[in-house]
Design brief:
The chain is an alpha+beta fold. The chain has three domains: about 35 residues; about 90 residues, Immunoglobulin-like; about 260 residues, Beta-galactosidase, Chain A, domain 5 (Distorted Sandwich), CATH 2.70.98. About 20% of the residues lie in helices and about 45% in strands.
Length: about 400
């Protein structure tokens, strides 16, 4: 009975295959019960590289149970662990977990969160209060560095609440070493010693994109920050909060709080502004200081962005750019600033981004910088779609 025997063999083979499939499905189901699958979708027709993904800790615990947040790690679709960070936002317990995703244009990428023993990673974002240099607060990532001025500097140089930028051409953290060498008299960070420098001048201006009330066609500037608090500090994000003493805006006394963060690989730092002291909606402006050796780079109004080219930075060009998350009501060129204007509603924090690049590291032309700012604006308008399950 050869035909019957063949049928029996075929049936046996089929049953074996079905059993293997069932076992595989059960194994996968078991794996998924011990991890959170994160799907990240990019709807834009541009690649999104090293873009931060943030998952609330409550969503993770809903799948994994009441686990120790310090045990969480993230792996890509190939099973390779990638850098992640718990976000505390200045509180005693973590609120979320962040990591950075690479997602090709118009596609999806998948990542997995599980419990284990996460590796220790070198920070790609770092910041601190610098009392040894007149109360600066400085912060950086693997691309760029910034600082803002504290109260001790007022007696020496007068008030300034503008944003300073340090251009870099190294992915190493440099703040501590540059300050240390400068204060020890070894090197000055105003000269490029191979890693970049501080060649940007702020003075009594908004510098590289700070914000201020813009009322009666005038900027109303605060003085140096009064208090500071570090909220998170690497390896993916550094963040902190500054408060400013009351300052006049027309006939009102206004207080200002800035919450500032910087993620790895970004040229732009995120700033969230909160003002109190004025009950009604009013206009504010983020501004880039103008210099004789500089010129603006123009964008269409719908981009909600401004940019500026400043020649002469240690033999190169410093590029500055600012991108709003709220609609711009105007772009203005006044005596000492290029401004982008928007409206502030009391009680509603206002977030925007500002930063810089250098022709000696990554931005060899005006077109390269304006492309970066344009794509950053697109990413704000179309954030990554994130599904954790």
């Amino acid at each position: 009975m050869p035909i019957l025997e063949n049928n029996r063999n075929n049936t046996a083979d089929t049953m074996k295959k079905l059993s293997l499939i069932l076992i595989s499905l059960l194994v996968l189901a078991g794996c998924d019960s011990n991890r959170v699958r994160v799907t990240v979708e990019n709807s834009l027709q541009i690649d999104r590289i090293a873009e931060t993904v943030e998952i609330p800790l409550g969503d993770i615990k809903a799948k994994l149970g009441d686990i120790d947040p310090a045990s969480l790690l993230v792996k890509d679709s190939k099973g390779t662990e990638i850098v992640s960070q718990l976000i505390y936002a200045g509180k005693g317990e973590p609120e979320s977990l962040i990591f950075q995703a690479d997602v090709k244009a118009g596609s999806r990428a998948r990542y997995f969160i599980a419990s284990g023993t996460p590796q220790q990673y070198e920070p790609k974002a770092y910041g601190r209060f610098v009392p040894e240099r007149y109360d600066d607060y400085a912060w950086e990532n693997d691309r760029i560095a910034f600082r803002i001025y504290g109260p001790a500097l007022i007696a020496k140089d007068g008030p300034s609440n503008g944003l300073d930028v340090w251009i870099k051409r190294t992915d190493k953290m440099v703040i501590d070493r540059w300050y240390g060498d400068y204060l020890a008299g070894k090197n000055t960070y105003h000269d490029d010693n191979g890693e970049g420098c501080d060649c940007y001048k702020v003075g009594r201006t908004l510098g590289a994109g700070a914000m201020a009330p813009f009322v009666d066609d005038s900027l109303w500037l605060a003085i140096n920050f009064e208090t500071w608090k570090t909220l998170d500090n690497g390896p993916v994000r550094t963040s902190f909060r500054l408060t400013y003493p009351p300052f006049p805006v027309r006939d009102a006394m206004v207080t200002e709080t800035r919450t500032i963060s910087l993620d790895a690989s970004s040229q732009l730092t995120k700033i969230t502004e909160e003002y109190s002291g004025i009950d009604n909606e009013f206009t504010v402006a983020a501004g880039i200081v103008k210099r004789p050796e500089g010129s603006p780079l123009l964008f269409p109004p719908e981009k909600n962005a401004i940019a500026y080219r400043l020649d002469g930075g240690e033999g190169g060009i410093t590029y500055v750019g600012t991108v709003l998350t709220t609609p711009a009501t105007a772009v203005k060129d006044i005596a000492d600033h290029t401004l982008i204007v928007t409206r502030y509603s009391p009680g509603t924090p206002l977030t925007y981004y500002t930063g810089a690049g250098w022709s000696k590291w990554g931005f060899g032309s005006d077109a390269a910088w304006t492309k970066y700012i344009d794509e950053f604006s697109q990413k704000i308008a179309s954030p990554l779609k994130i599904k954790a399950e």
